[in-house]
Amino acid sequence: MCKTEAKVYKQTMKIHTNKRKREKTKQNKYKLKNKNSGREQSLPLQNKTTPHVSVLLQETLTLLNINPDQNFIDTTFGAGGHTQAILEKNYPDGAVLALDTDPNITAEQFKQQYNNRFIFRNENFFKLKHVIASLEKPIPFHGILFDLGVSSMQIDSDTKGISFRHDAPLDMRLNNSQATTSEKLTGEYTSLEELRDDVGEESITAYHLVNFLTLQALEKTFKTYGEESFSRPIAKAIVYRRKQQPITTTTELVDCILTIKKKRPQVKTHPATKIFQALRIAVNNELEHLSQALEQTLDILQPNGRIAVISFHSLEDRIVKQFFQKNALTCICPPRAPICTCNTKPKVEIITRKAIIPSEEEQTNNPRSRSAKLRVAKKI
Prior knowledge:
Elements: H1 3-13, H2 15-18, H3 20-26, E1 30-33, E2 40-43, H4 57-64, E3 72-74, H5 81-89, E4 96-99, H6 108-114, E5 118-121, H7 128-133, E6 141-147, H8 152-156, H9 192-199, H10 206-212, H11 215-226, H12 231-244, H13 250-258, H14 273-284, H15 286-300, E7 301-311, H16 314-327, E8 348-350, H17 360-365, E9 373-379
Parallel strand pairs: 3-4, 3-6, 4-5, 6-7
Antiparallel strand pairs: 1-2, 7-9, 8-9
Helix pairs in contact: 1-4, 11-12, 11-14, 15-16
């Protein structure tokens, strides 16, 4: 890491101690200079009625190294907190291409406010190259942000079935606009891939997994995507319950889980958390899509452009960390080779040697930020 990058990194780690008082007075407004009148007008950083709070916002802005007139991609628009903060910093002519797979998000207010500085597409980020190819004119991009997981609006939705706190149909798709059915399904499926092929990539739901995967396939899903230590007994309980009648709602699934994994006062995490995480990741094919999207970033970014990823569990973070490490290698020769003959050139420089986590104050103010980790790399 060069001296300049080290300085930026050091400043970032101290943000919450030397800027907190000033941020408290600014956190709900930005001053944007009016290009035509030369006057300043106050803009809300984030809609006060919006329950979603952008995680690691200031750290992300600093490490993206945003300059005026540069262009960025926000692959998970959500409530637009990160996007709006970037648009404040890359003013007056910088643009943001924002993506979100949720069809309920349209970003109309941003389109009206920022005009051609803001481009929005209802697409999953694994289609990043396709989206860029469809733009009216080529745009050089200097940074890409991934804020992974699900937004607070999606967690709090009583129709998507993502949270165990709401009684809802067992759907869990981030984009649930596609009709779905299980009429053609007969018997059990020995693998998630086989079930996905029969139901369809955009139609498969948590209902299909819970009611049609075999015991072994359910156990594997819970272990792989949820790292749940009670995977087998919970899978057994589900198979036993669905033989009596199909499990159709989140409440029914939670009741089933609680027969095996009881609530304990000393444990903050709900017993159903890891099972719901596993089902959501599996339904949306999140890890595969993340890997595909990361591979596309190096072809999209300009030299010195940055990739910033905020992850919320170890599975995502591991993929990001390994992607950065693989592309930062300077040699891929066998360990016992006497000299390097591969002529490998690193594709990225890792900016954050250790993942950045929210300050204690942010975790207190926004408990959903507790598990967040930020990693950043620069394209060489």
